[in-house]
Recover the amino acids of this structure.
């Protein structure tokens, strides 16, 4: 039976197709947007705001460290509990919600795609097992390929083609989407309780983080990869790190991307935009970062904007989490992963009464307001690091309302007036810009717009969010409320949320990339790789790759070698 | 005859995955490489539950799968305070159905960690866990400490594959590059291999951890001449070795989780690790017993928010170990139905809880007969995961590995049995709803 849906009388914001607040009907047949429908079910949007399903470019929602966060924070579990319903499984958690709650809550905010931002390759099966249990959301995951011994050895020997062959094998073996970089070299150093700055030599490997980033960018661009390298740089969270950040951006400046997209996506930039030399003279350098991004085309960013309150921080940047734990003295979990990566987890409270947290809070929003072109940035909180994703509507309301920002600043530490720029910025986002930073930009940067995500052009996935919001609404509170719970969320043509309640919970698709590498090159790389399995890994080569059973709803994107 | 390589062992938390077996006429006929003697014995097969059965007039009578599943579903659908327990010696795919079944009938779902490393979980919830994968230990560790654990007997391949005897990148000469410290109340087989053996008095782990921790933080002066039966001189030597190591690891077992201060022992062990970490790289890891006890903790956590002792009677997950962990529930005679899967409470639970089990309907799902079978009212045989059924498991360091299927079987896999029970339960409830 043909399933047809007509969304009538909506005010549509579809920036990828240049649709900016037009009264327009959306027709969906068999899950896809079409020109016209004949005998549809009709939803009357009654002049409300209509956008494509949201696309989150960077969040930690599934896998070993997310679950370690849940496990060691039963106090967080208690915060979000909701009983099962006929449609929904039982829910728990706030900053580390259980898998089911993760899917429902994103869907209620109108999101239909989320990128899991850090998948340790050796534990990739775990990430996929959890993803299967996240309802509704289409998804993908980025494997960590930067602290890997194979990567560092090829960077050292300068064998970019072999590095590309390794990347190809790794992305395929993990059913991953691209190349994730987290504190390159620093996480390997953390295996000896050390860390690396951008130009330090990694202990025993005799390469620098800068060389790793450059090598990975060059090797990644040998394929028609939908997404560039996705980088969490060195010295995250350290006062004065903004120069490391711009130096990292500079590394990939001359590298030509395979298509019209940046060569580096720099994630949770708020954590990398710090001035000062200690926590005492800590200040915002969002202006300097925004200036760089405004002048250059090779870098895209996401915000990592702070939500005040308690959260659970987690990253493959093991030494950073240790530093954070030393500051707070709260509980700390660490999990180093052989030959590849590591991770750390510690709870954290962002308080508006603390000068540093207040400045951090300002920086995330400053980046959004000082970077002129919204196509260069995506809204994230680096969930749950700067705050849980459920806080996105708060950020949206701040960006759209200078008044709300000013009122909030009044209740916060006075440092915001001395060591941040936010109070002096007048810019306010409009709904089209919000649509760009919550779906359009992420879909384009991930290359997913070519696969039906993030827009409502003919052929796109029938993923639609209808917000209970008039385009003229300016009251921040109402904007926030509308973006938290949609009037309707439609996923693949099926209504999954109605009036803020989940009414259906279909399984999402998992997008993964298959880089296609020359056989001879692969063969040569394989001799080195098999030696690693023979001698150093604790699992066998044949038991390593993620089996098809772990990805029951696959969507494959091929990435041919660039001729 | 077919040779199968990369076979994954479904016995203990080591989850060795480099085993080679020969299969002939749908039987494992030879284990050629990789398995320890216990793992080998499991792979070669032994006595099992042959037929589904329902207890009638005191004795088990063979029946069909359909009848046993129907009976189990009737019992569960009528239960007011059901307990679903076990889950550690089966695959995650089955565990997931278990959580769903628990939600459906408002059960308490608990797993063997409850009577095993449950105290370790409580400690982790208090202070966290600085740890790593076993390959990290293999490649880097120059100091290995086993505390209240005897891998030579209980995790026979642990030292060879991952720790003291293994060879890795910075440990190319194996144990020549490493030191071994064993802390135990008696001179175990593992202790006999140690460079330093600290024989402590029963129940004094907490004191000894405290002394080491004080010394690691520079407070040698507060430590008395003898602590828990160990001389200050030996403690100082241990601390020297810890500080001088490039990469140290503490593996701890039941000897620490179930003596004296229980979870406080583990809190102290973790805090000792953190103290050592102020000098050098130091990690700590529980020696998980069953091959997938880490896995049920993982599944239960991502699905409910909590790793064990989860009460779903409210419709959402409620977590309070000690109130509704399996033995507490049974000793209070609170639950009216129990389902046991892939575990043997009959052999491992306190007598008082067994006495209650004798009075209530008990359902058992297991490939093998054990003391629990003696009082089970419905017995459902299952395929042996890792031999007759595939699926995901988590090694003691939380690394997921897929068990392989080696031979065909007529027996149903745990996952299918549970799915069918869940389907029957839903059908019964729907009918009642009408």
């Amino acid at each position: 039976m043909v399933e047809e849906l007509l969304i009538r009388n909506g005010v549509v914001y579809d920036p990828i197709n240049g649709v900016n607040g037009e009264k327009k009907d959306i027709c969906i047949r068999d899950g896809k947007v079409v020109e016209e429908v004949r005998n549809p079910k009709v939803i009357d949007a009654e002049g409300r705001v209509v956008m494509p399903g949201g696309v989150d470019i960077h969040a930690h929602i599934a896998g070993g460290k997310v679950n370690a966060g849940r496990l060691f924070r039963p106090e967080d579990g208690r915060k979000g509990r909701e009983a099962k319903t006929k449609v929904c499984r039982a829910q728990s958690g706030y900053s580390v919600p259980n898998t089911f709650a993760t899917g429902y809550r994103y869907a209620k905010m109108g999101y239909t795609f989320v990128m899991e931002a850090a998948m340790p390759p050796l534990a990739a099966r775990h990430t996929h097992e959890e993803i299967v249990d996240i309802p509704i959301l289409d998804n993908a995951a980025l494997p960590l390929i930067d602290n890997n011994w194979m990567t560092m050895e090829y960077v050292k020997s300068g064998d970019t083609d072999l590095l590309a062959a390794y990347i190809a094998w790794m992305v395929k073996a993990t059913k991953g989407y691209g190349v994730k970089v987290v504190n390159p070299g620093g996480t390997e150093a953390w295996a000896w309780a050390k860390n690396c700055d951008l130009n330090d030599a990694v202990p025993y490997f005799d390469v620098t983080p800068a060389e790793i980033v450059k090598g990975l960018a060059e090797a990644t661009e040998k394929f028609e990869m939908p997404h560039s390298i996705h980088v969490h740089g060195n010295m995250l969270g350290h006062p004065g790190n903004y120069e490391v950040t711009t130096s990292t951006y500079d590394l990939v400046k001359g590298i030509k991307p395979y298509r019209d997209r940046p060569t580096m996506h720099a994630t949770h930039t708020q954590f990398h935009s710090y001035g000062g030399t200690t926590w005492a003279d800590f200040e915002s350098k969002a202006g300097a970062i925004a200036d760089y991004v405004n002048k250059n085309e090779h870098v895209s960013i996401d915000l990592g904007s702070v939500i005040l309150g308690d959260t659970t921080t987690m990253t493959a940047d093991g030494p950073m989490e240790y530093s954070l734990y030393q500051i707070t003295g709260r509980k700390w979990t660490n999990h180093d992963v052989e030959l590849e990566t590591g991770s750390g987890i510690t709870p954290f409270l962002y308080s508006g009464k603390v000068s540093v947290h207040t400045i951090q809070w300002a920086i995330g929003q400053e980046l959004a307001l000082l970077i002129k072109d919204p196509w260069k940035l995506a809204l994230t909180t680096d969930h749950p690091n700067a705050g849980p994703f459920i806080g996105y509507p708060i950020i949206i309301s701040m960006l759209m309302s200078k008044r709300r920002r000013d009122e909030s600043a009044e209740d916060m530490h006075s440092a915001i007036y001395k060591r941040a720029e936010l109070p002096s910025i007048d810019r306010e986002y409009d709904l089209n810009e919000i649509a760009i930073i919550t779906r359009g930009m992420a879909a384009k940067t991930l290359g997913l717009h070519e696969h039906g995500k993030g827009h409502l052009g003919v052929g796109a996935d029938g993923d639609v969010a209808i917000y209970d919001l008039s385009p003229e609404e300016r009251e921040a509170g109402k904007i926030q409320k509308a973006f938290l719970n949609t009037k309707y969320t439609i996923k693949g043509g099926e209504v999954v949320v109605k009036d803020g309640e989940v009414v259906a919970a279909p399984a999402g698709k998992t997008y993964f990339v298959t880089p296609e590498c020359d056989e001879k090159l692969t063969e040569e790389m394989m001799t080195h790789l098999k030696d690693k399995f023979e001698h150093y890994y604790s699992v066998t080569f044949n038991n390593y790759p993620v089996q098809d059973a772990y990805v029951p709803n696959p969507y494959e994107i091929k990435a041919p070698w660039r001729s | 005859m077919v040779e199968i390589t990369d076979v994954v062992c479904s016995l203990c938390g080591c989850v060795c995955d480099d085993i080679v077996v020969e299969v002939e006429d749908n039987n494992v006929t030879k284990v050629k490489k990789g398995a320890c003697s216990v793992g080998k014995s499991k792979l070669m097969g032994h006595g099992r539950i042959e037929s589904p059965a329902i207890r009638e007039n005191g004795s088990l009578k063979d029946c069909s799968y359909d009848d046993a599943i129907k009976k189990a579903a009737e019992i569960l659908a009528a239960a007011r305070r059901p307990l679903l327990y076990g889950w550690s010696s089966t695959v995650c795919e089955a565990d997931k159905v278990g959580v769903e079944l628990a939600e459906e009938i408002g059960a308490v779902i608990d797993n063997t960690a409850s009577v095993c490393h449950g105290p370790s979980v409580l400690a982790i919830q208090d202070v966290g866990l600085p740890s790593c994968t076993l390959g990290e230990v293999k490649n880097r560790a120059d100091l290995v400490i086993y505390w209240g654990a005897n891998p030579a007997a209980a995790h026979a391949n642990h030292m060879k594959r991952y720790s003291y005897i293994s060879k890795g990148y910075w440990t190319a000469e194996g144990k020549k590059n490493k030191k071994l410290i064993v802390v135990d109340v008696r001179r175990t087989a593992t202790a006999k291999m140690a460079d330093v053996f600290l024989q402590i008095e029963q129940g004094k782990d907490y004191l000894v951890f405290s002394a080491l921790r004080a010394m690691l933080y520079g407070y040698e002066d507060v430590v008395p001449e003898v602590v828990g039966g160990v001389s200050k001189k030996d403690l100082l030597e241990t601390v020297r070795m810890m500080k001088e190591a490039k990469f140290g690891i503490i593996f701890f077992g039941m000897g620490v989780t179930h003596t004296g201060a229980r979870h406080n022992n583990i809190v102290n062990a973790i805090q000792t690790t953190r103290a050592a970490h102020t000098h050098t790289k130091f990690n700590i890891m529980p020696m998980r017993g069953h091959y997938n006890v880490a896995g049920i903790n993982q599944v239960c956590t991502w699905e409910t928010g909590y790793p064990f002792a989860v009460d779903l009677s409210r419709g959402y997950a409620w977590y309070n170990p000690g109130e509704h962990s399996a033995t507490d529930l049974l000793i209070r005679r609170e639950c009216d139905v129990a389902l046991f899967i892939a575990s043997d409470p009959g052999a491992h639970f306190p007598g008082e809880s067994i006495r209650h089990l004798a009075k209530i309907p008990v359902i058992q799902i297991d490939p093998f007969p054990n003391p629990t079978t003696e009082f089970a009212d419905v017995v459902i045989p299952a395929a042996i995961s890792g031999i007759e059924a595939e699926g995901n498991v988590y090694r003691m360091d939380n690394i997921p590995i897929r068990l392989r299927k080696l031979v065909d079987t007529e027996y149903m896999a745990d996952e299918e049995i549970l799915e069918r029970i869940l389907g029957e339960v839903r059908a019964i409830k729907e009918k009642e709803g009408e």
In short: The mean pLDDT of chain A is 97. DSSP finds 18 helices and 24 strands in chain A.
